[in-house]
Amino acid sequence: MNKEKTAKLFERFPFFHPESPITESLMGFGFECGDGWFQLIWDLCLDLEKEGSVQKVVQVKEKFGTLRFYCQTSSFEAEELIEIAEDLSTNICERCGENSVLSQLENFGKISGWISNICDKCKEKK
Length: 126
Ligand SMILES: [Zn+2]
Fold this sequence. Notes:
The protein has helices spanning 3-12, 38-51, 76-88, 120-125; strands at residues 57-63, 66-71. The protein is an alpha+beta fold.
C-alpha cells in the first residue's frame, strides 16, 4: 500500500504501533497489500475500534488473493468482523478497489504460485 494511505491508517487508528520492534509486530513494514483494499481496511478498523477488544494489530497482508489481518489479542466478536472483511476482499480488486471476483484459485501452483485478486481492467494495464 502506498505511503499516503498507510500514513492515513496509522494516524487515524491507535492499534497499529508501526514503531514496534519486528519481534512484536510487522506493522513497521506497512500494509502488505494493494491500495485497492484501503477502504476495506479502513471500514474494518472503524468496526474494530467500536468493538474495542483489539489493542495491537501485528500484521496486515495479502495471502492467496485475500486479506489477512492478524491481531495480538482479539475477542470472538472482533475475529468475526475480521473474517467478514477477509471474505469481502475476495470481491475487491486489490489494485483499484473495484469489484473483482477472485477466480485464479484453480491456477494456484501452476504458473508462479501467486494468486492475487486483480480485476480485468487492471490486468490489461499490466
Ligand atoms: Zn482493478
